[in-house]
Amino acid sequence: MDYIAGVLGKLNSHVFPTDKVTLGAAISIPLGGLLVIALLTYTKRWKWLWKDWLTSVDPKRIGVMYIIVGLLMLVRGGVDALMMRAQQATSVGSSHGIVSVNTFQQLFSAHGTIMIFFMAMGLMFGLINLVLPMMIGSRDVAFPFMNLTSFWLFAAGMILINLSLGIGQFSAAGWLAYPPLSELRFSPGVGVDYWIWSLQIAGIGSLLSGINFFVTIIKMRCRGMNLMKMPLFVWSVLCTNLLIMFAFPILTVTLTLLFLDRTMGMHFFTSGFGGNPMMYVNLIWAWGHPEVYILILPAFGIYSEVVATFSRKRLFGYTSMVWALAAITILSFSVWLHHFFTMGAGADVNGFFGIMTMVIAIPTGVKIFNWLATMFRGRIRFTTPMYWFMGFVGLFTVGGVAGVVMSVPPADFQLHNSLFLVAHFHTMIVGGVVFGYLAGITYWFPKIFGFRLNERLGKWSFWCWFIGFLLAFVPLYILGLMGATRRLDHYSASLGWQPLFIVSAIGAAIISAGVGIFILQIIVSIIKRKDNIDYTGDPWNGRTLEWSIPSPAPFYNFAIEPVVTDRDPFWQAKHLANNNEAEAPHYKSITMPKNSSIAPIIGALSVAFGFGMIWHIWWLTIASLVAIIVSIIIRISDDNTDFVVPASKIEEIELGYSAKRALAPKEKYA
Amino acid sequence: MSEAANPTMGLEVSNTEQAKNAKTLFGFWVYIMTDCVLFASLFATYAVLHRSTFGGPSGETLFSLPNVLAETLILLTSSFTCGLGILSARARHKNKVLFWFLITFVLGVAFLFLELTEFRHLVITGNSWRRSAFLSAFFTLVGTHGLHISVGLLWLAVLLGKIFSKGLSKNNIRQLTLFSIFWHFLDIIWIFIFTIVYLMGALGK
Fold it and tell me: How far is A69 from chain B (nearest CA, A)?
């Protein structure tokens, strides 16, 4: 028996799920995986997948991989959401709904965790990887190998959290796992350990990315691009990464302390031995509040690019936009206590944090007005990204006002942990973050793949999201005011809440249709790519540097390093340049980083490391840790990580693009 | 002045050795700042929990200042020899580099040995991290510093092996520079641990 415990830790034959719902999910994921494996083998694409994608240090490809994972997790978290809505619509009176109480608790814990860490963070890093280097006129990020490693750590966390479906169970302690509930005494299973290690591994990846992009922006801008000439998306990424650098170490510490409590018998957050559960709540929100700004700031950046491009106007109030971003960045560290006004900090402390929370609405309001002023007297084109933008302005303003309502501590004592709060933060995250990232994917898709997405399906997807959102969350605002708390698995029929919960469930179903149509839009656009092909590299009549290079962008981005003199350099070049044909370009050889198979290996080893930690399989943990260290030593000992692209090769690629550009029909947009 | 010690901070974007040094050095400083936040969080938890002894012993009765003074002097000396090693690296004296960094390594091991002796003593006298929230916070804060020292020693061992076999390549000098930043940083963190945990603890503050 001891021998088996040594080899398998806490694993035994009872870890597999028994209830039908979890079992179905646990079986369908490997089945989907098998389908992909079969398809890859049938089309003989394994080598292509490994050499061109999984080991690629090209940020554009890393970005695409992040976005694929992010969209998959949108589906996974969306299924969780649908089941929660179905449960709450049916579990009333004598009926107890479709899932057990324990499964329901896992559902809301997994939904929040997956949506924030693996959907939103994934799409965010994906979009940053896709366009940030191009926007600053650079060929790469500062540390290409580290960038790929970050992706693989993110993927490792994602794999661990999904493993919990089939092996053991996930945390039932909510998406932030407050102690003492998440302590060993009250959550003895492996669920919370799955939560800790999937976030810890993905979080370290995020921290490395934060450092990487910060250094990239500070050190690798092209000549002439001083800070106040950076596109606003770049500014938003700079602020986001600053927040990541200050917030994510706190998360690392918090998760480690919870792990030490659970595994080593320490007493940081236990209810006995002098532990202090409130300290956990402070620590997790000292990370958690900046985290929501980490997610929203890049979305603000995307909206700023989209609204300027499609209004064919310079962004209104650029300087105030930059200062608003900076103000939000700093203020976001001084509001975390508003997440627990009711936990007894006293009137003075609550008053301070309430006022700081109201103050942060000011720079956000500045941004809303600047975007609207950009549209004013612009020549607006109603493309899909612009739809997402306009949906965002409406929802975000309403959600923001709901937030200001809750920032008043006495009001919050009524609304705390109610569905009103749930509706508020979903308005911000769906209407703000998700709409922004979907706009970003639609906007920059042609730059990466060389053709635009289908506009008609894109608009259909938008309307499903928008109408579905209102149907799903307006009832929750009302229910919250009527006193419905979050995370209810059952309620009394006499309350009369069921009709509103049913409307909300219908709304969730319409949002799912929106997700489905978005994915359908990508598939249809790939099949009919000839209809939407982008010959010029500038399908939207863009303003910033990424549109000055051909589509799909070559792996080196810029054949000749650009020099900028203006905030909208490409727009200026198009409209002010005297059209005397430039002399034939003189190409130089380019040094680029080599692909690396060490990064995916580190990712795989991290899965093994985390799995060992979760199940107490110590030999696996130690072996994979040693293997990770050896991999890093091998990497830092490698003096030969770059290769040179000769000038002739670049000329050949660029000539190919010129030939394509010559096929372009007359300019569609003037 | 070598390139490693004095990288240009200008606007070079090409992937030359100098630009690479500048990026790496700056990136490492940024990483050090994030590590600073990590230690700040641990200091904060220690500050919150240092009186939560749950009826067990406090720092006043547990800490032995002579032992900690020895640890401090050893670590400060190792920082000094690390600095001498960097000066030798700038002058491209391979043997001097090996000599000074070997001393740094030995001093680091001595520090770690003293720290683990203290930990062992606490555990066998029944005052392990399971005893109280105060001791959990103490072991975690001091232990995280010790873990950083261990990682530094492993890194230094690998580097010394590479310098011994391959000489002072550009890559090796760059990494030595990064290591020295890391080592001095751990020294500064130790000064805070020495003051806040041990001195103030021994005074019963």
Answer: 27
Q: How far apart are the two ends of chain A, measured CA to CA in Å?
A: 76
- A272/B contact by beta carbon, under 8 A: yes
Residue A588, both tokens: 């130089």
DSSP string, A508-535: HHHHHHHHHHHHHHHHHHHHTGGGGB-S
Residue of chain A nearest B11, judged by CA positions: A223
- Count CA within 13 A, CB hemisphere, residue B50: 21
Interchain proximity A248–B34, CB inside 8 Å: yes
Question: Could you say which residues from 29 to 68 on chain B have a Cβ atom under 8 Å away from some Cβ of chain A?
Answer: 30-31, 33-35, 37-38, 41-42, 45, 48-49, 52-54
| pLDDT > 80? residue B3 | no
Closest CA to A509 of A84, A100, A102: A84
Nearest CA of chain A to the CA of B104: how many Å?
Answer: 20
A207 touches B: beta carbon within 8 Å: yes
Q: Do A245 and B33 touch (CB under 8 A)?
A: yes
A629 touches chain B (CB under 8 A): yes
What is the per-residue burial (b if ≥16 Cβ within 10 Å, else e) of B137-155? bbbbbbbbbbebbeebbeb
Cα B41 to Cα A263: distance, rounded to the nearest angstrom: 20
**CB atoms closer than 10 angstroms to residue A268:** 29
ipTM: 0.94
Residue B79 in any domain: the answer is yes
Task: With H, G, I as helix, E, B as strand and everything else as coil, classify residue A587.
Answer: coil
Indicate the number of domains in chain B.
1
| CA distance linking residue A126 with residue B89, whole number of Å | 41
- Inter-residue contact A268 to A280 (CB < 8 Å): yes
- Domain assignment present for B43: no
Q: What is the CATH number of the domain that holds B152?
A: 1.20.120.80
DSSP string, B67-101: HHHHHHHHHHHHHHHHHHHHHHHHTT-HHHHHHHH
In B, minimum Cα distance to A643 occurs at B15
Alpha-carbon gap, residue A635 to A228, rounded angstroms: 37
In a domain, residue B117? The reply is: yes
pLDDT digits over B29-79, tens only?
Answer: 999 999 999 999 999 999 999 999 999 999 999 998 999 999 999 999 999
Domain that holds residue B150: 25-32+56-202
What is the per-residue pLDDT across B137-187, written as a single tens digit (0 to 9) for each?
A: 999 999 999 999 999 999 999 999 999 998 998 889 999 999 999 999 999
User: A222 and B13: CB-CB below 8 Å?
Assistant: yes
Name every residue whose Cβ is closer than 8 Å to that of residue A494 and which is 6 or more positions away in sequence. none
Count Cβ atoms below 10 Å from residue B171 Cβ, excluding itself: 20
- φ, ψ of residue A643 to 5 degrees: the values are -135, 160
Query: What's the distance, CA A342 to chain centroid?
Result: 30
Residue B142 lies in a domain: yes
